[in-house]
Every structure is written in C-alpha cells, then in structure tokens.
# Entry
Amino acid sequence: MSMLSGSGLGQGEGRRRRHPVATAFLVVLMMLVLFGATFGAIRLLKGGGSAEPSASGTTSGPCVSTTVTPGAALPKPATVTTNVYNGTDRAGLARTTAATLKTRGFGIGSIANDPSGKSLATVAEIRYGPKGTDNATLMRFYIVGATLVLDQRTDATIDVVLGAKYKGIPDQKTINAALAKPVVVATGNGCPTPTPATKPSGTAKATATASKSASA
# Structure
C-alpha cells in the first residue's frame, strides 16, 4: 500500500510540476496572437491613410485636350498700350511700325531706339510683365515670329523691340484668320507644367555705335 501510495503521490507531484510550464506556454501563445492582430490592424490603418492623399490629389482629373479659338480669349487692340523700339540700325523702323499698329487699333506709348542698348538679330522681342501676358500674346499675331520675354514690370503695357529679321506686319485679314483658327490646348493636373517665357540667351548682342545713333 505504501508503494502504491508513494507512486501515486509521485505522479501527482509530476503533474503539478508540469502545470507552470503549460501555463507559461499558453500565455506566450496568447501574447503572440494579440501581437499579430495588433500589428495587422496598424498596417491596415496605415495603408488606408496613405491611399487618401492619392485619391484627393487626382480630383482635377488627367491632362485633357480641348479645341479653342485664340482670339476669343484675347483682349482687343484698343485695350493694349505698346511701346515700339528699334533694335536695329535701320532708321525709322520703330516710327513706321508704330504708325501701322496705331491704324490697327493699338495704343502707342514711347517710340525710340531700344532703351536696353541691344541690337537684335531675330525678328523681334515682345517684352511684358505678368499683368500683360494676354496683351503680349495678342501682339505676337501682329509681329509674327517675335520672342516673348517676361520682365518685372508691374503694369500691363508691353514693348515691341524690332530686330534685323523683322519684315513688317501682316494684313489684317491674315491676322483675323489666325486669331479665328481653332487650336488644341491641354488642361488638367496631368499636363506638364509650362516653362515661363524668358529671354533666350544668345538672341541679342550689344549694339554698335552706329545702332545707337540710328533714328527710331
């Protein structure tokens, strides 16, 4: 009896010794399950948060091409005041061009040799400030081939600076046809950002003394 009793007591003690190990295993298992659930929830929340800015950033849509008539959005010549400057050694070029522009309805400001003291080898430059963007765009239909040059002026006036390749102003019928000709423009967030118009390097060189003395 004592041997059986001893054996029974030993088995009972063995079972009691295994209980802490099993309990610890269950605790660790539960911690792993909780950690995994928490980690998954955090990743899900982070993924949902990163998707929102992407969706909101595309509310304006992709780049879309539409057909417009240039003249419809541009000002009338009577609302535009332009200075006319001679950037060549051809005497009287600014005066004759200013007279033609006046007959086409433009307001004329100063008529002189180019104040910047440059001699243009190109057709012309149309200089303008941020407020004169539309005025400069309109003038480019009259001075075909001119380069748009953005400067820091604060009003809407523009300068037409005539260069060596300037040949004259087209007849009004040709200009009206160009203003009425449909063109394709692209709008939307997906469109490339246009580069602001600036004066290209190498299009002008310092004037010689003869150019300085030429009459506008």
About this structure: The chain has two domains: 1-56, 68-213. DSSP finds six helices and nine strands in the chain.
